[in-house]
Amino acid sequence: MPNKPKETIHVVEDDPAVARLMAQTLEKFGFEAQFFATGADFLRRLDSDPPRLCVLDLGLPDMDGLDILSHVRARHGFGLLIVTGRGDIHDRVTGLELGADDYMVKPFEPREFIARVRSILRRYREPAAGSAAANGVRIAEFAGWRFEPGNNALTSPGGETETLSMAEAQLLGALLQRPNQILTREQLLGGRDVAALDRSIDLRISRLRKRLEENPLHPRLIKTVYGAGYLFSSSVDWL
């Protein structure tokens, strides 16, 4: 039986010591890493050779990492992990709102780094057997809305269509798969442990509410169950 191809990780990092550590860690755990010391080099490679996941530093010599993140999320659907020396909460919140899947601050522990890489990759792989998408169900309808997981298209009751980011689409898909059930933050993040101060899931819920709710401050579809998680309060028809 042929060996399974290694998943490619693009690492955008200008510090040689950190790049070396990431290379050794990724290769030790069976990944193939390609490194870019500047944002421009990384962006030039994207169209011809997109990765399964990108590890992005924010403090690059030629570009702001948040600008790269915004560019990537507008055009590509692979996983994205920010690993940076910037610990400022504003950068963290902005990165997650722009569509990063996770955020780590240097210095980091290599095993935690790999755990977060694996967690993101699991969320971007094919749906598990038995799920609606795996059984050929491509469209969900709820409360007048229509969601197509195949292309992340969300159509409003008025007929206006917009394309969700990958992070938003995955979150909405998880809610639609189990309507009228309380889902914890860990469940909505694909099983990853959520630290007490990690509010990334709350930020994504907020973004979905702005799209779906008439009054996001008083949501009727995506309800907060305090101390437990979130509940999608609508019937869902899969077509």
TrEMBL record:
Transcription regulation keyword on record: yes
GO molecular function: phosphorelay response regulator activity; transcription cis-regulatory region binding
GO annotation terms (biological process): regulation of DNA-templated transcription
Record-linked InterPro entries: CheY-like_superfamily, OmpR/PhoB-type_DNA-bd, Sig_transdc_resp-reg_C-effctor, Sig_transdc_resp-reg_receiver, WalR-like, WH-like_DNA-bd_sf
Any Gene Ontology CC annotation: protein-DNA complex
Response regulatory domain span: 8-121
Protein name per its UniProtKB record: DNA-binding response regulator
